[in-house]
């Protein structure tokens, strides 16, 4: 299964841009990169997904370099409500994409 | 749409008891899955299903059974509860047939086994 590595935790202040980088050195050709957000006592929520270059939606941007061995989730102007755990996942083409592996994620703390 | 619903929200079991965690979705999604999340940890895949009548094991299937008789429902059965199964259980579904696209998660069931 494709393995991802993320920082365990990050701290930021309201209004700042936060960039969380994920390493996925053995990503397969057909794998997508997906990011989820999880608040305490809730299920994860899909944030953004990409395959290459840059993807942007109303919540975040995802930057993927040409070699696709890493990706960066960018959260513009964070607020206190962005305090959560963020998971980076890649699909597993070896299982026909039927399994996903969640790592321990990055715990983001946004302070006033 | 209610999305993905799970019942019960909380449950306390004694060691050796059995029970079924219910999961339902009203989005006509083919792919459904069960995860468990232990304190401070990421989610681990227990079982998944790619359609009615088809199920398969994930990372940590021991002690759990699943069935998928309809597209909407995907119950998770604990055969003989053990303290090691104390966890939060999440059900998820995906309309793309595989989970590598967007998955929708339920609110979770918090299970304590004493």
Describe the structure.
The complex is a heterodimer of chains A (about 110) and B (about 110). Chain A is mainly beta and about 110 residues long. Chain A has one domain (about 10-110): Immunoglobulins (Immunoglobulin-like, Sandwich), CATH 2.60.40. In chain A, about 0% of the residues lie in helices and about 45% in strands. Chain A has a 5-stranded mixed beta sheet, with no helix packed on it. Chain A has a 4-stranded antiparallel beta sheet with strand order 2-7-6-5, with no helix packed on it. In chain A, a hairpin with a 5-residue loop joins β6 (about 60-65) and β7 (about 70-75). Chain B is mainly β and about 110 residues long. Chain B is built from no helices and 11 strands. Chain B has strands spanning about 5, 10-15, 20-25, 30-35, 45-50, 55, 65, 75-80, 85-95, 105, 110-114. In chain B, strands 2, 4, 5, 6, 9, 10 and 11 form a 7-stranded mixed beta sheet that branches. Chain B has a 4-stranded antiparallel beta sheet with strand order 1-3-8-7, with no helix packed on it. In chain B, β5 and β6 form a beta hairpin. The radius of gyration of chain B is 13 Å and the shape is globular. Classes of the chains: A mainly beta (about 110), B mainly beta (about 110). Chains A and B meet through β4 and β8 of A and β5 and β10 of B.
């Amino acid at each position: 299964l494709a393995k991802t590595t993320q920082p365990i935790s990050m701290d930021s202040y309201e209004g700042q841009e936060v960039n969380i980088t994920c390493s996925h050195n053995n990503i397969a050709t057909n794998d997508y990169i997906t990011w989820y957000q999880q608040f305490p006592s809730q299920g994860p929520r899909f944030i953004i997904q990409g395959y290459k270059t840059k993807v942007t939606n109303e919540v975040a941007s995802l930057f993927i370099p040409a070699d696709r061995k890493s990706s960066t989730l960018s959260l513009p102007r964070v607020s206190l409500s962005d305090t959560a755990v963020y998971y980076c996942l890649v699909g597993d083409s070896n299982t026909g994409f039927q399994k996903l592996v969640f790592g321990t994620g990055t715990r983001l703390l946004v302070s006033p | 749409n209610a999305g993905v619903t799970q019942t019960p929200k909380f449950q306390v079991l004694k060691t050796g008891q059995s029970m079924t965690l219910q999961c339902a979705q009203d989005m006509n999604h083919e792919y459904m899955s069960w995860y468990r999340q232990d304190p401070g940890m990421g989610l681990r895949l227990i079982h998944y299903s790619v359609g009615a009548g088809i199920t398969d094991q994930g990372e940590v299937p021991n002690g759990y059974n699943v069935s998928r008789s309809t597209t909407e429902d995907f119950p998770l059965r604990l055969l003989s509860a053990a303290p090691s199964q104390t966890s939060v259980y999440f059900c998820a579904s995906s309309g793309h047939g595989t989970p590598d696209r967007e998955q929708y998660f339920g609110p979770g069931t918090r299970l304590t086994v004493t």
